[in-house]
Specification:
With about 375 residues, the chain is α/β, with parallel strands linked by helices. Helix content is about 40%, strand content about 15%. The chain has 15 helices and 15 strands. It has a five-stranded parallel sheet with strand order 2-1-3-4-5, with helices on one face. The longest helix is centred in the last third of the chain and has 21 residues. The mean pLDDT is about 90. Bound molecules: iron/sulfur cluster (SF4). Iron/sulfur cluster binds next to helix 7.
């Protein structure tokens, strides 16, 4: 039997797809080069932006098209999906599963399919986002040969007001140090050059060491840096409020740790930051950057910003530009605010900035980043 996986969204979803592929390989499936050849098609979705959601859901007519062929492909979906969106697509697919169910009910149902037994995915699949993420134990089928994603934690407890992740991925859950180190050692043995540690917020990692003692992200990073071998370590994504002095020092000293930090600040104005529930001010962020630059003089910084958050005035937007100019980011990922049902911002604030104004602000940030990098 053959499978086909289509992945949308961030590196975390890409990494989850590697685990799905790993499980299917273990069950004896082979990868199909195109969906029409697959017995099992899995869509790993992202609902961070409404535009992406609309585009993706357009694809689900696909199932009826696929089933006109002899193959009778079964179509399943997983990923970051809001409850409302699940309702919209559930009739168009054979099943929806939470990624934390991958090694549990999903595996059981796939085995039934293999044995030609009746499967009842639709009725059985529950919303289990608060289950332990034991699916991360599955041996992944890595997509690349030199760079590997290693998830260290998943979920998020931060509830930024614009973000769906805490609702779609559930609460934070960290892997044990031993499990992570075993995966990394295996990758080093197989000549991987770069290990990318992944999590919605890597610096709120809370694991346990071999003696059951609590460890944080700085401890974990240090242990990986101390492994012998010729490799580099990078990590994604960090929340400014959890970037400790201890962590900055570990990054500065770790000879295998890349001196690149992606540190989303989202907005420069304190009132907007408060409405976003980011739990820091512009001053906190700039002080943190100063500390990082002092400890790691050759650091390369990148960030995410949102333009046109509800109520953002021109003056408040200028604060975002001010931060970008002061820090001198190498790269800025710019998002135009898009309201997502189910988030706090959707319930509390009116999306009162026009799309054309958001586009103008986007362009202004873009031009500024270009200017900074041409000068640097
Ligand atoms: S830190 Fe905020 S933006 Fe990042 S995943 Fe968590 S809630 Fe979303």
């Amino acid at each position: 039997m053959k499978y086909f996986i289509k992945t949308f969204g961030c590196q975390m979803n890409a990494s989850d797809s590697e685990r799905i592929a790993g499980l299917l390989k273990e069950l004896g499936f082979q990868e199909a080069s195109k969906i029409q050849e697959a017995d099992l098609a899995i869509f790993n979705l992202c609902s961070v932006r409404q535009t992406a959601v609309d585009r993706i859901y357009g694809q689900f007519n696909l199932k009826s098209n696929l089933n006109k062929s002899k193959k009778k492909t079964k179509v399943f979906i997983t990923g970051c999906i809001l409850e409302n969106d699940k309702k919209k697509i559930k009739e168009k697919v054979d099943g929806i599963f939470d990624i934390r169910e991958l090694d549990k009910s999903f595996k059981k149902e796939i085995i039934k399919i293999l044995k030609n037994e009746k499967n009842d995915f639709k009725t059985k699949l529950l919303n289990n986002r608060d289950l332990e993420a034991t699916y991360l134990k599955i041996r992944p089928k890595y997509k690349f040969k030199d760079q590997a994603f290693v998830p260290i934690m998943t979920g998020c407890d931060n509830f930024c007001s614009y973000c769906v992740v805490p609702y779609t991925r559930g609460r934070e859950w960290s892997r044990s140090k031993e499990e992570i180190l075993n995966e990394v050692k295996d990758l080093i043995k197989n000549s991987y050059q770069e290990i990318v540690l992944l999590g919605q917020n890597v610096n709120s990692y809370k694991g346990k060491d071999e003696n059951g003692k609590e460890i944080d992200f700085a401890d974990l990073l240090k242990s990986i840096n101390n492994l012998s071998g010729n490799f580099q370590i990078s990590f994604l994504t960090s929340h400014p409020k959890d970037m400790s002095d201890k962590l900055i020092k570990v990054i500065a000293k770790g000879e295998k740790i890349k001196k690149e930090i992606h540190l989303p600040f989202q907005a420069g104005d304190d009132e907007i930051l408060k409405k976003m529930n980011r739990k820091y001010t512009q001053k906190d962020y700039l002080n943190l950057i100063e500390k990082i630059k002092k400890e790691i003089p050759n650091v390369i910084l990148s960030t995410d910003v949102i333009v046109g958050f509800p109520g953002e005035t021109e003056k408040q937007f200028q604060e975002t530009l001010k931060v970008i100019e002061k820090v001198g980011f190498k790269e800025v990922f710019i998002n135009k605010y898009s309201p997502r049902k189910g988030t706090i911002a959707f319930k509390k604030y009116q999306d009162n900035i026009s799309w054309s104004e958001k586009k103008r602000r986007w362009k202004e940030v873009f031009d500024l980043v270009e200017k900074i990098n041409n000068v640097l």
